[in-house]
Structure formats: C-alpha cells, structure tokens
C-alpha cells in the first residue's frame, strides 16, 4: 500500500502574509494606531462565535461588518453611507498583502524536502491564490484550501480534518504552522504536529496547549517539522 505524501499546512494571514498594509490603510483613514489589532481580534471573535452556533459567515462579510462596527465605535462615523465608502477603500487591501521575508526560503525548503505545501485559510481561495501570485510563490505552493468549501471556521477540528482530506493527506502525516495559538491548538486537536511562528505576538499564549515547536524563523519550523514528518514515513 502506497503511503500518503507528508503535508505541511500553513495558515495564511499573518503567518505567510503581513498585515502591515492594513495598518497603513486604517491609519490613512484617520483611525487610531491600535485599530488593526482590534479589528482582527473582533473579526475572529465574532466569526468563531457564529461558527460555534452553526451559522457560517464568510470572511469578507465578517470583515465588512466588523469594520462598520469599528468605524461607528472608534472612528466617529455616524452615517452608514460614509462607512461603506471607507470600507470599500479598506477591504481591497486584503488582496495587496506582502509575504514576510522568510516565506520564500521556507517554502523552497519544503519543496526540496519533497513535502506537499498546503495553504489553509479562513479567507477565500480566490484572494489567497491572488496573493500567492502577487508574491511570486506559485511554484512553491501545491494546494490552497478555504473554509468556504465546508463552511466551518478554524479552529474547529472538522475544518482541519476536511482540509487534509481534500488533498489526500492524513492528520498523522501532516503538520500545521501558524502565527496564532488558537490555530495551532485546533490543529493539534485534529492530530497534526504543530509549529508556532512568532509574528504579531511576542509570546505563545500560556493557557493554550503548547505546540511541538516554537520559533521566530519560518525556515526553522519547516526544517524541523518536515524532518519529523519524513522520519515517520
């Protein structure tokens, strides 16, 4: 019986692509410097709550709604029409994100090792593929899976299981790399090896289940996790 190919699964936003462009876009609208972090935290909070109550809301709709709330709350916007105009200027930035400096080398190492690279996103497949092309990563990514396919937000266990199944992988032959403690915890719960990359957070959340490996280098995580996967073949 032929064994399945090992799979390295990467979260997309903040893990692969920086949100610095979003920070600049929000600042250009006169919003406080902390707005990006508040926006992303509230977006995820409400998305997770909706998913937990069996109500699926796609990323773009959740992002638009979260921005509207923030514009009225911290941006001093009182008219929905004005808010919509600002939102229409901000949302396209999600298609203009830059990859972190260590991404190309890390993905290149994964390909050298013969490990499949899967980008698994809470966003849309179309936008993710656009970002991959924009950053010159097409030849380094084997698969893109969006939660839109099965309508369940990460970190639900079934989301990781469905994503791995779609690329003919197996959880025990896969590893997840993410910049979010909730994401590595979700992947761990689904049976994947896990690696946490230090990006926006200086410390892994101490109340969350620890990942197998932590590093501030994506190359280091790919090196160690691919080594574990290949040794287990």
UniProtKB/TrEMBL annotation:
Keywords: Hydrolase
GO molecular function terms listed in the Swiss-Prot or TrEMBL record: hydrolase activity
Pfam families cross-referenced by the UniProt entry: Hydrolase
SUPFAM superfamilies per record: HAD-like (SSF56784)
Family annotation (InterPro entries): HAD-like_sf (IPR036412), HAD-SF_hydro_IA (IPR006439), HAD_sf (IPR023214), PGP-like_dom2 (IPR023198), S-2-haloacid_dehalogenase (IPR051540)
NCBIfam families: HAD-SF-IA-v2
Protein name: 2-haloacid dehalogenase
Source organism of the structure: Marinobacter nauticus (Marinobacter hydrocarbonoclasticus)
